[in-house]
Amino acid sequence: MAKSPTEKTYRFIQMFYLFAFFGFGALFPLLSVYLEQEKGLNHTQIGIVLSALPLLTIFMQPIWGMISDYTRRPKLLLIIAALAASMFGLIYPWMQIFPTLLIGIICLAMFQSGIVPLSDSLSLSFVQKNNKEYGNIRLWGAIGFAVAVFVVGRVTDHTGSLSWIFYFFSLALFLSIISLIQFPKRADEVSVSFRTGLKILIKQKPFLLFLVSTFLIFGPVLANNYYFGTFILSVGGTLSGVGLAFLLAAGSEAPFMKFSQQIINRFGIIFVIIFSASVSCGRWLLYYFEPSSEVVYATTIVQGISVGLYIPAALLLIRELAPDDVRATAVGIYSAVGNGLGNAVFTFLGGVVIDFWGVNGMYGFFSGMTFLGILLVFKVKRWTNSSRKELTA
Question: Membrane-spanning residues where (predicted)?
């Protein structure tokens, strides 16, 4: 029996996420190891190069959004972004000194930063119109990321060359472009401008406080993706071991994402956020005390809780805290603060802390910042409870 056009599009969107995140998984987890072992950079320089990726995201995502709004051609822009990022990935291994490595990653990030927001915009519009679940799309990204780190880790360990991370990155993004054939061409239009939405959201204290907590909680989670490979090697692991660790960590996200809505419905949004953040805090604290490689491998699966539950719960809370007509703007700001600013700041500070106190000291710092973020979530909970009581009084 032939699949309907809607089901066919749904499968192609899942395929895109599989290939795109395979590319991300091939490159980013081992990028710090590549810069250290093959380019000879110190950890402060590595922190600067790595933090350029999320820092560019903060500035480039709104630009991609404005170009998309002006042209009404998000699918074409997505093709351009993926193709250009793929080409810069092929060029990057030829660069040698720190300034060119920094410039090269900036060029790559300018285009790579457009891939997720453009694809999310198109896919969210599709699932809302066709009664599908975004979680069943996004979990294919988690699977692609997990498989990529495992495969690329084994290839680099076997060949002795870390340049493979860029070749796999470029190939995967090129394959993702092929899956765009069946992608929807347009996303929904927004009714409120970004500037107007920002003015409204600045007045929402619980929303602003949750942004700060997201910065403190999720910034270290994303920075860990860059330094976890270095940590695995420091406890006696191998490049293949790095791949295995990421396979367990990223792979554990998929089932939690699939069942996240049921868990949130049962326990509540705030509880799930606090619980998942507490798991992250405990994990970073454990790493501070220099555990064995076996313990590190065993604890990677808790990332399913700290990421697979936190992401959907945080998005739901953002939508709950924001007024109805500015929810799209609220989600965009949340993404910029968590995925962009928090990622950039903690990636940079992580490199500096490693140079002074080692990779275990970095995880102690991450644990402390995450704990502060959890305290802020409790404050958000009190504010939201007070607001509900006022509305029902």
Answer: 12-34, 46-64, 76-95, 101-127, 139-156, 162-183, 204-222, 228-251, 263-289, 295-318, 330-354, 360-378
